[in-house]
Write a structure and sequence with these properties.
With about 400 residues, this protein is α/β, with parallel strands linked by helices. It is built from 16 helices and 12 strands. The protein binds pyridoxal-5'-phosphate (PLP).
């Protein structure tokens, strides 16, 4: 009996990809084993985060890094660092930012539920730009001069959500920001793979970049990577670490926290609630090392083969069209799109999705294109056993006669 069965839960087949609501992708075995070992001994957390900092720096080209409790927590902490700097008095106040600079500029079409993480630090978002093509009302999206025009003495940062479709180019936004001494925070949570993105945004000059630890790199689901400037990471460490120590005995690792420039030792900060365990830090480091060593390349090839077989097995079904799509560079997980002719099929993509979810085991597909009548499948979590069940269930859901009442 599996551990979920023991607690009365039925594990699902996850072809939705890295979805956090489904617990994220399966963790690499190597990562799970490292976490098990890490759990039986203890180390000072500032020493562990200091080691993590130098490893993240090595992997990303950043000056320093920190293991956060997810990319969203990384956004909150990077924002808190931009607002408070290394002043313990300001750290103590957050998220109350009354009377201190707290504005973060963001393009309207970069906004999402995740910007709650930025606001949680006490930041006020200032929107710029339009998305006229989406509204069918024009051809232009946000432009660099609009960011520049929004910068005031109250601006602490520009937040930029990096995707292959993001505009204006990050390098242009960084140029504008740095000319006015404003920092740039990049949300690249789901931009791994490709591994080249580990250093790409840092290389363009971003001051802080966040990645999810529990998405494409298959680390612990509750972790994230923050890579950035040394002083920002020092602020994040000071606002995150448990600081219940006598100040006379406090001896933080100088690579992570240079206490010589501090006016005093802060108390627990806004990040104390985003605790990351020692097992998670070790798990993240092992996952990052594995990923940077090409760990996802073989998985991408395996996914492509699985999707090819699933697609071939559905090829004879009427009223559907099958398409395997992938990024031009071929460096992200391929996706199988099942386009339904909903009227001939007699059911919508939502109906099929619901039938897949309600069966046993429940199957969750990527739901982004359901309104367009398309089921999207990511094979990163499949093995030969679940592949077989998936094929049988898809056949059933796409071909069984519609009940007539
Ligand atoms: C997933 C995601 C996040 C949050 O990442 P977590 O590691 O789950 O906290 C933030 N921003 C974007 C764009 C994401 O896709």
């Amino acid at each position: 009996m599996g551990v979920y069965d023991e607690w009365g839960l039925e594990p699902v087949i996850n072809v939705a990809g890295t979805a956090t609501r489904l617990g994220g992708p399966a963790m690499a075995i190597e990562v799970a084993e490292a976490m098990l070992q890490a759990s039986s001994q203890t180390v000072p957390m500032d020493r562990l985060q200091d080691r993590a900092s130098s490893f993240i720096a090595e992997m990303t080209g950043a000056e320093a890094g920190y293991v956060t409790s997810g990319a969203a927590a990384g956004l909150t902490m990077a924002t808190a660092a931009c607002i408070a700097g290394i002043d313990p008095i300001l750290m103590e106040r957050l998220p109350n930012t009354t009377g201190i600079p707290n504005q973060v500029i963001i393009s309207r079409d970069h906004r999402s539920g995740y910007d709650h993480a930025i606001r949680a630090a006490g930041a006020q978002l200032v929107e710029v730009g339009m998305n006229e093509p989406l509204a069918g009302a024009g051809v232009r999206r946000a432009e660099a001069w609009e960011y520049e025009a929004a910068i005031t003495d109250d601006t602490v940062a520009i937040a930029y959500v990096a995707t292959p479709e993001s505009v204006p180019p990050l390098e242009t936004v960084i140029e504008v920001a740095h000319r006015r001494r404003v920092k740039v925070l990049v949300d690249a949570a789901a931009q791994l793979p490709p591994a080249s993105n580990l250093s790409r945004f840092v290389g363009l000059g971003a001051d802080a970049v966040v990645f999810s630890g529990g998405k494409g790199i298959r680390g612990p689901q509750g972790t994230g990577i923050l890579a950035g400037r040394r002083e920002l990471i020092m602020s994040v460490a000071l606002q995150s670490l448990d600081l219940d120590e006598h100040s006379s005995l406090w001896d933080p690792p100088p690579g992570l926290i240079d206490s010589s420039g501090l006016r005093g030792m802060p108390r627990h900060g806004i990040g104390r609630g985003f605790k990351v365990s020692k097992e998670e830090v070790i798990g993240l480091l092992v996952a990052l090392r594995r990923f940077a060593d090409g760990g996802s390349d073989a998985e991408i090839e395996k996914s492509r083969a699985i999707l090819g077989r699933v697609s071939a097995s559905l090829a004879r079904l009427p009223h559907i069209e099958l398409r395997i799509s992938e990024a031009p560079a071929g460096t992200t997980f391929p996706l199988l799109e099942i386009h339904l002719n909903e009227s001939l099929l007699g059911r919508s993509a939502f109906d099929v999705d619901k039938a897949l979810r309600d069966g046993h085991p429940p199957i969750y597909v990527h739901e982004r294109l359901l309104p367009a009548g398309v089921l999207v499948l990511n094979a990163m979590n499949l093995d030969s056993q679940t592949e077989e069940v998936l094929v049988a269930r898809l056949h059933q859901a796409l071909s069984e006669p519609v009940a007539v009442s």
